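Handout, section 4.2: multi-component inputs.
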Amino acid sequence: MIDFLFYVFAALAVAGALGMLLNTRNTVAGALSLVGTMVSLGAIYVLLDAYLIGALQILVYAGAIVVLFLFVVMLLNLREDAFSPERLRFTKLIGVAIGALVGVELLLLLPAALGPAATVPADFGGYRMVGAALFTDWVLAFEVTSLLLLAAMVGAVVLAKRSID
Amino acid sequence: MILVGVIVKMLFIVLVVAGLFLPLITWVERKQSAVMQDRIGANRADLAGLTLIGLLHPAADVLKLLSKEDVVPLGANRVLHRLAPVIALVPAIVTLAVIPFGGTYTIGDTTFSLVVADIDWGILFVFAVGSLATYGAVMAGWASNSNWGLLGSMRASAQMISYEVTMGLSIVGLFMCFGTLKLTEMAALQDQTFRLFGFLEHVFGVAVPGFLDWLRLPMWGVFLQPLGFILFLTCIMAENKRPPFDAPEGESEIIAGYHMEYSGMRFGLFYTAEFLEVPVIGTIVTSLFLGGWAIPWLSTTDIVGGVSSVFGQGFAVGVCIVLHVLSFLLKVVVLIWLQMALRWTLPRFRYDQVMDLCWKMILPISIANVFVTGAVILFLERGA
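Output:
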């Protein structure tokens, strides 16, 4: 059953990603198919017993971040000339480089993934375990990240205020 | 056997909320507003001269909406235009899966609980599913190829994202009190009572005088987190976009917002989603703050113990289940009444007022609530 669900959601995730890539003329539809990918990824996390990450994936990525993408796309009113050939070439170059990197990584990880599945401890991936790890072992990283987000927020306020003044 | 149980529970909760509450709410909306505005209200739909105080109106509405022409505007994205009302409606129904409408009971060797999916991260599931409802509004406005629709969906998505943030923060205090995110565990904890002045003894080491010591309150979220209750109720009502928070469809400014290009039952589905959210909000708030299925001052062990001594264990558990489900539904009805009363009392807030309320009032107050709750819990745990 879990295998079957995995294949369903994996196929949906890939379909959503392809939909986003191929919908270059219609950016809003592209962003909406990205939502499908995000929700499917959330379901796959749940299948991996990572319940908290699964919930946050849907809550944060599908529920908030892609909505902000949509905001930007709708408000910017993109025209054809936004995709000039030289810009597109540069983006494609980056895409190919990152794709190659991920491909190599996958090939390196494949032997370990084909081995027997690891058993997970009870309460693995629940909010208690993740919270405890986050606030003990990784508290420095957590605080640094929050500082980074604060800096980004202050920067956004400063930029917005300048345009109002 | 498990599958049968799940299907029965699903049928029960969906039939009660969508089959009973939903049509009744459209009737209550008309009748309660009529009473509040000194009118008679809907009373014309009749079946062979029988009007049943207007109770036939929900059926007449649905018939009318189903038989109307389904118009798709020129230049609209046809797929997304058709998909949007469904996406607006589904999250409200899915949320019901994690709501416990009764406790956990044992008859003989079998233990069962009256909830469809008893998951450990129950309330996170509610938030995650609820956050997807935004796409219904966004898609509807954008796919209609209409400026007013787009303005409405902009407003709707900004409002819903903003209130999601504060909705989550406003109940952090509650999580700290109960120490769990699991809705069934929360409801079970709220089945207890606590001594109102017990902290005097616990923290200050002062003996509580007899008559004060007798005062006990149910351990409901609303008594542990009164501020959290008001904040959460405000946020979740704003999330539903019904008046007074219906700026996304402010007809005086943007005609009808994100669903102005919809007709017939597709338009009806947006309204169904909003109406369905009213009892669903009732079930969420009941489980979190009003003790869920719990009956105040009468815990499960009291009922089972009292009745089983006379009529036997099985009968006692049966009585308990009926009483708990009725208690749950009664609380939901009270919350529906409250939402209706608010909806017909307050005029629509201006859009900037809605956003100011969220970011300048509710957000700081909720953060302060988290800190104060933390301090109080620390203080109580330390003791004298």
